[in-house]
Amino acid sequence: MKFRNHSLAIYTVLLLGAASFLGGCATTGMDRSVKTSNSIKDMDSEIRKMDVQLDVTAASLEALVRSEKSDLKKPFHTYSNELEKLEHEGKKVIKRLDDMKSHSKEYFGEWEKQGDTFTNAEIRNLSDQRRSKLAEIYAQVPAAGLGIKGAYNEYLIDLKEILKYLSNDLTPKGIEGITPVAGKSVQNLNALKESLKPVLLALDEIKAELYSGKK
After folding, report:
1. Angstrom distances, CA of residue 167 to CA of 153, 161, 171, 175, 178
2. 7-26: per-residue pLDDT in tens?
């Protein structure tokens, strides 16, 4: 019975710790736990959707510059639509990263306050260890996000200016002139995709700590 009660106490600490992780606005431990899970999963999902959209948009640009010169309107509109989707996905990711950075002190400050209320030294130490470990991992996400912002903005400017150029000169000669620029934009695409990897790795670490149940 004592072992069962001790296990229950440890589980409660971990649940409250995870709940405090992103729970500045929630009113109960369960609310904070649900918010934590949703926020991490949403961040992960949004970055992966952006990664896929990067490939789709790049493919639409390649199809445009390689299209039959007699039919440029259709691939141009496809590229325009995919670029709009990419910008939408990118804005969501950047906002999510900004939110994580601006609210991190609040998240872990609340957790620290809860940890200080434990009278059991073992539970208090466990709470502190978990908070410190997750805070360290969590900080990697917005830090890595700084690289995403720069690479994303640089790549997006390239794509939007290509679109703008072709909107004024959607002709075989216009395509021929912009093709080298489109080819060079691949370098910025690769840089952006590389910048996503550290964030995804950090998110994987957070998910493993919160949900895997493994030591």
Report:
1. 21, 10, 10, 11, 12
2. 444 444 444 444 444 444 44
